[in-house]
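Sorry to interrupt, but I need a hand with the structure work. I would like you to pick a protein and set down its sequence and fold. Please put the record directly below this note.
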Amino acid sequence: KRTLVPSTHQIVHLILGDGRELLVSPGHPTVDGRTISNLVSGDVYDGASVVSTQRVIYGEKATYDILPSGDTGFYWADGILIGSTLR
């Protein structure tokens, strides 16, 4: 799904201790029932310590999400398991 966003739209640059990184909208669900915006440095997510959750300007005209075919609504983005915003 493609969602248009304003030029001021912010996303989270999520960095995990094992080197994985993801640029993701703050309201994106996590696999453990939180949202990305609720993650803080020191939390454990997807088997690794959260190093940083810095908000940055997105700089694009639209965001995109995937509707997985499985029952969980989870999918891998840049090697990190996240939940879909779509149902």
User: Anything to note?
Assistant: DSSP finds no helices and eight strands in the chain. The longest strand covers residues 48-57. Residues 2 and 11 are 15 Å apart (CA to CA).
